[in-house]
């Protein structure tokens, strides 16, 4: 089992540029989560998908952030335009099918630096 | 929404001693309480979890206790080893999906 896969692992970009982060959940998991981790705010849930449908996006900081899950094996988190305060580690996590809540398995994360 | 508080923020222990981390939560409907370990530069990894129908759970050197009446739960690590050094996060969730995380405890095990 490959686990949750994220790409890229590191991203350095200039303010104003578009950034796209990618995630492949564990096969068979029907729930997918995007988190952001910073020293100041800790681990924050940005958005949650269940069966490819966004269920709760209340954690998305503002309209510059968007997320999609076109199929069960792929999700993207896009920031456009990026700002220095978006610098953080972004984690994707997936969770198996069943009556919740169930353990969430985290990917390795994408370290984003916006200069 | 759920508010999870975690103490202490840092903990230094001598190798072989025990470490205890405590968390409190605010939502009495929460019924799932996982603990994650995050080593420097790595992903959070689930180390143990407990559901509200049990009061204690053990897995080798780690154990978690839950007091639903007082709305607090604790992580106990016995016979600590250098590889236990990491940041530990507690979390709480209702019968849905949303994990509310504590701020984390940085544990340092001194050799």
The fraction of residues in strands of chain A falls at over 45%
Measured between the Cα atoms of the first and last residue of chain B, the distance is 41 Å
Percent range of helical residues of chain A: under 10%
**Intertermini distance of chain A:** 36 Å
Task: Give the overall shape of chain B.
Answer: globular
Describe the oligomeric state of these chains in a short phrase: heterodimer
Helix content of chain B: under 10%
Unreliable residue stretches of chain A: none
So how many helices of chain B?
0
Secondary-structure element series of chain B:
EEEEEEEEEEE
What is the C-alpha radius of gyration of chain B, as a whole number of Å? Answer: 13 Å
Provide the β-strand percentage band of chain B.
over 45%
What average pLDDT do the residues of chain B reach?
94
Strand/helix succession of chain A: EEEEEEEEEEE
Shape estimate of chain A: globular
Mind describing the biggest β-sheet of chain A? 7 strands, mixed
């Amino acid at each position: 089992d490959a686990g949750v896969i994220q790409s890229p692992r590191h991203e350095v970009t200039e303010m104003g540029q578009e950034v796209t982060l990618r995630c492949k959940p564990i096969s068979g998991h029907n729930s997918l989560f995007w988190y952001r981790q910073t020293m100041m705010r800790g681990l924050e849930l940005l958005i949650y998908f269940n069966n490819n449908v966004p269920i709760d996006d209340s954690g998305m900081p503002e309209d510059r952030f968007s997320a999609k899950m076109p199929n069960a094996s792929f999700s993207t988190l896009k920031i456009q335009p990026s700002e220095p305060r978006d610098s953080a580690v972004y984690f994707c996590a997936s969770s198996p099918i069943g009556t919740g809540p169930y353990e969430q398995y985290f990917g390795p994360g994408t370290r984003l630096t916006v200069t | 929404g759920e508010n999870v508080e975690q103490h202490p923020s840092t903990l230094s222990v001598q190798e072989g001693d025990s470490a205890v981390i405590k968390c409190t939560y605010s939502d009495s409907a929460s019924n799932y309480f996982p603990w994650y370990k995050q080593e420097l530069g790595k992903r959070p990894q689930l180390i143990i979890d407990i559901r509200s129908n049990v009061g204690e759970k053990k897995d080798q050197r780690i154990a978690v206790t839950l007091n639903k009446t007082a709305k607090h739960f604790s992580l106990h690590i016995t016979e600590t080893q250098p590889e236990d050094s990491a940041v530990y996060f507690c979390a709480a969730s209702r019968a849905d999906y949303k994990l509310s995380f504590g701020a984390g405890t940085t544990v340092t095990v001194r050799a």
